[in-house]
Design brief:
By secondary structure, the chain is of the alpha/beta class. It has helices spanning 5-16, 38-48, 75-84, 101-104, 118-127, 147-154, and strands at 21-24, 29-32, 57-60, 89-94, 109-114, 131-132, 134-135, 160-161, 174-177, 183-185. It has a single domain (5-185), classed as Alpha-Beta Complex (DHBP synthase), CATH 3.90.870. It is 29% helix and 19% strand. The strands form two sheets. The protein has a six-stranded mixed sheet. Strands 7-2-1-8 form a four-stranded mixed sheet.
C-alpha cells in the first residue's frame, strides 16, 4: 500500500508539534511520539494508562539513529541485535547516562528496535530520529491492528492516525535483554 506524501507530512507535522500519532508496525498499530519531548511522552503514557516506570520501546530506521542513546557497547553484546535487524526483535541495551527517565523508565537499559516495517522506517527516517513505539491501545486491552481499530480504541486522544497496513507478524516483537540473553517478552521472532 502506497501512502500519500501529504499523509506522511501530516504525521511528521503532528510529531514535530509534540503530538501523538498512531501508525502501522510489523504486527500491530503503534502509538508514538517524539521520545525527547517529555510532555508528549507523558501524554502518551496517560492515554495508555501506562506507568512511566515500565519504560518504552524506541524504533528507528537505522542503528545510527539509536547509537547516541546507548552506552558504548561491546561488539559481542551488540552482534545478535545487529544480526536481527531490521526485524521484529527488540533488544534491551545499556542506556547512555543522558537518556531521560521518561524513556527508560529510570532503568539502566533501553528497549530499541530497527524496524522492518517500511512505513514505520520511512517515518523514522523522515523524522530524523527514533520514535516511541508502544501498541495503540489502553493498557490491558487488545492492540489495534488497523487504522480504524486505532481510531475506535483511542478516538480524539491521538493527533493523527497514519493509514497503512500492518506487517505480517502475528505477535508483537520479541524483547530480549542483550546483557544476559533473557527473553523478556515472547513475540513474533521468538
Amino acid at each position: 500500500m502506497s501512502v500519500p506524501s501529504w499523509s506522511l507530512r501530516r504525521a511528521l507535522r503532528a510529531l514535530r508539534a509534540g503530538g501523538i500519532i498512531a501508525y502501522p508496525t510489523e504486527a500491530v498499530y503503534g502509538l508514538g511520539c517524539d521520545p525527547f519531548n517529555e510532555a508528549a511522552v507523558r501524554r502518551l503514557l496517560s492515554i495508555k494508562g501506562r506507568a512511566m516506570s515500565k519504560g518504552l520501546i524506541l524504533i528507528a530506521a537505522h542503528f545510527h539513529q539509536l547509537r547516541p542513546l546507548l552506552w558504548p557497547l561491546d561488539e559481542a553484546m551488540l552482534a545478535p541485535a545487529l544480526a536481527s535487524w531490521p526485524g521484529p526483535s527488540t533488544w534491551v541495551l545499556p542506556a547512555a547516562a543522558s537518556v531521560p527517565a521518561w524513556i527508560s523508565g529510570g532503568r539502566d537499559g533501553l528497549a530499541v528496535r530497527v524496524t522492518a516495517h517500511p512505513l514505520a522506517a520511512r517515518l523514522c527516517a523522515l523524522f530524523g530520529a527514533p520514535l516511541v513505539s508502544t501498541s495503540a491501545n489502553a493498557s490491558g486491552r487488545r492492540p489495534a491492528r488497523s487504522a480504524l481499530g486505532a481510531r475506535r480504541a483511542l478516538g480524539t486522544q491521538v493527533d493523527y492516525v497514519l493509514n497503512g497496513a500492518v506487517g505480517g507478524d502475528a505477535a508483537p516483537s520479541v524483547i530480549r535483554d542483550a546483557r544476559n540473553g533473557r527473553v523478556l517478552r515472547a513475540g513474533a521472532a521468538a
